[in-house]
Amino acid sequence: MIPLNFLLIVSLILFMVGTLTVLIRRNILMILMGLELMLNAASLLFITYARVLGNLMGQFFTLFIFVVAAVEVGLIIAIVLNIFGLKKSLLTSNFSLMRR
User: Fold this and answer.
1) 91 backbone dihedrals φ, ψ, rounded to 5°
2) In DSSP terms, which residues pair with 91 in a beta bridge?
3) Residue range 4-94, CATH number
4) Residue 94 has pLDDT above 80, yes or no
């Protein structure tokens, strides 16, 4: 069995890498990857505590996180395609308003 401390440290590292990616990168796709890393870290933490506590609430929350992430990806892809069509770039510094 994997020790609890190892899972907590992996979850923390994933969350920190995702946070740094969101804060440092300028490309929208990289920012979205950072957000997905943060969601996966939260899912790992929920699953870890569900195993420790012996209930299924962690799996329920993880399933909810996956549904939210899937909806987020669908909406964000539409927004990114619209921005790329208007600005011909995905760098956040190239646009400040989402209008023509």
Assistant:
1) -80, 135
2) 27
3) 1.10.287.3510
4) no
